[in-house]
Amino acid sequence: MPVFRSDSLLQAVRAQARPLGNEPPPELMDALAGRRLVLLGEASHGTHEFYALRAEITRALIVRHGCKAVVIEGDWPDAARINRWVRGLDGGSADDALAGFERFPTWMWRNTVVREFIVWLREYNQARPPWQRVGFYGMDLYSLFGSVREVLGYLDRADPEAARRARRRYACFDHFQQNLQAYGHAAGFGTGFSCEEAVVAQLTELLRHGPGSHDDGDPDELFHAQQNARLVRNAEQYYRCMFHGRASSWNQRDLHMVETLQALSAHLQERIGQPPRMAVWAHNSHLGDASATAMGEQGEWNVGELARKRWPGETFLLGFTTYDGSVRAASDWDEPAQVKRVRPGLPGSWEALFHEVGPQRFLLLPDAGLRAQLDEPLLERAIGVIYLPETERRSHYFNARLGAQFDGVIHIDTTRALESLPEHLHEVAEVEVPETYPAGV
After folding, report:
1. N or C: less crowded end of the chain, CB within 10 Å?
2. What is the pLDDT of residue 131?
3. End-to-end alpha-carbon separation of the chain, Å?
4. Domain 6-141+246-415 architecture
5. Is 183:431 a contact under the CB 8 Å cutoff?
6. Residues 6 or more apart from 371 whose CB is under 8 A from it?
7. d(CA 167, CA 26)
8. Rounded CA gap, 220 and 271, in Å?
9. How confident is the model at residue 6 (pLDDT cuts 50, 70, 90)?
10. Residues 402, 406, 412, 417: is their CA dihedral positive or negative?
11. C-alpha angle 405/261/310, rounded to 5°?
12. Is 26 helix (H, G, I), strand (E, B) or coil?
């Protein structure tokens, strides 16, 4: 691989960096116009500007380019509550719609930017017929028990006998007092006990012999039940392989995300008669192509890499970076979120390079020549729900070839912490694993 001097790389980036305002520039929207799947990343789960710009870009995709779905790094049943609200199927307030996000880290989706966006989306949808309304969906897999409840609730309404069969199958998890980490440890280490057969049987029944939809005004109801059953099947596999190493569980999680995108795309296409355009919100570590980073060297793949392979030529990967500022993050699992100072980007990192470019906020859509230069591996920072400045180099940096990792990058030199909504305390009977566990992103 050729080695580029940092000053020549800096000058090449400076020549193509375009100053960025608060609205998506025309050249970015032109680049996204022909893509069916637009993956919008973030360098942390707690930065206001990343969320705000993603929301602005998504509004433009919806209004100008007919985007039909917003898909987030959140769980299906939690996002389904928002989906019903923005499509006018449920009443109440935006805060009520966001109340499904109860587990750590609640600020990822219960924040002021997301609230403002879903209020806008509900208003946008009101004047449109049902199948022209834009939906809001989750693609993560941490809500096994929540999804079990959703499957059973649907079957109770639509087919009580099928509901009894489902209860017998899902009772398998009761052997571990519904503690998923305990289940994963036992099933993953060859005790001979596993719920795999039960959850596969339940998914198969719903997919092949789904009962007629119970009419509560939601034409997606059966699909939602099927997707929850799919989540339970994939989550069981995730927890079973959790103790076999990071790559195994990470790959299962991101594969589930892509399978969700694929199932949702097929469902919406059946309803609207054409392939839907979708905007995806998740961390850079999920949406940038893993094969261009140290993740790929460790045997990990991710949504960005798999999406490029499954939808070649139809996918755009947009990454976000920052040099310093503040971030909302915790110091450990289940600890309260704090507003923490983000240390300046380390020397030898993309963040440090972009700091030297000049504009405080810029968009980079590299041409072929610059993309080749951006294929030089440099450090890249990833802050998840936990931020540990004292061990930042080890905890939050990895090598990445930015030219292959993303199709475009937005850099905001100094950013501020995301503003979360007030906490809502709920009693939760099951021991659900926190969002993003154990990777943090």
Report:
1. N
2. 86
3. 30
4. 3-Layer(aba) Sandwich (3.40)
5. no
6. 403, 404
7. 52
8. 10
9. confident
10. negative
11. 55
12. helix
Domain boundaries, the chain: 6-141+246-415
Residue 136 is classified by DSSP as E
For the full predicted model, state whether its pTM sits above 0.70: yes
Please determine, for residue 298, whether its predicted confidence score (pLDDT) is greater than 70: yes
- What would the pLDDT profile of 343-394 be if each residue is shown by its tens digit? 999 999 999 999 999 889 999 999 999 999 999 999 999 999 999 999 999 9
CA distance linking residue 124 with residue 126, whole number of Å: 6
Q: Are 100 and 78 in contact (CB under 8 A)?
A: yes
* Cα–Cα distance, 312 to 316 (Å, whole number): 10
Angstrom distance (rounded) from CA 233 to CA 405: 30
Residue with tokens 């022909």: 34
Output the pLDDT for position 2: 35
105 cis-preceded (ω within 30 degrees of 0): yes
Instruction: Identify any residues that bridge with 320 across adjacent strands, giving them in sequence order.
Output: 410
Residues 6+ apart with CB under 8 A from 92: 85
Take residue 166 and report the two structure tokens written for it.
């489902």
Q: Measuring CA to CA, how many Å separate 30 from each of 72, 86, 315?
A: 23, 27, 14
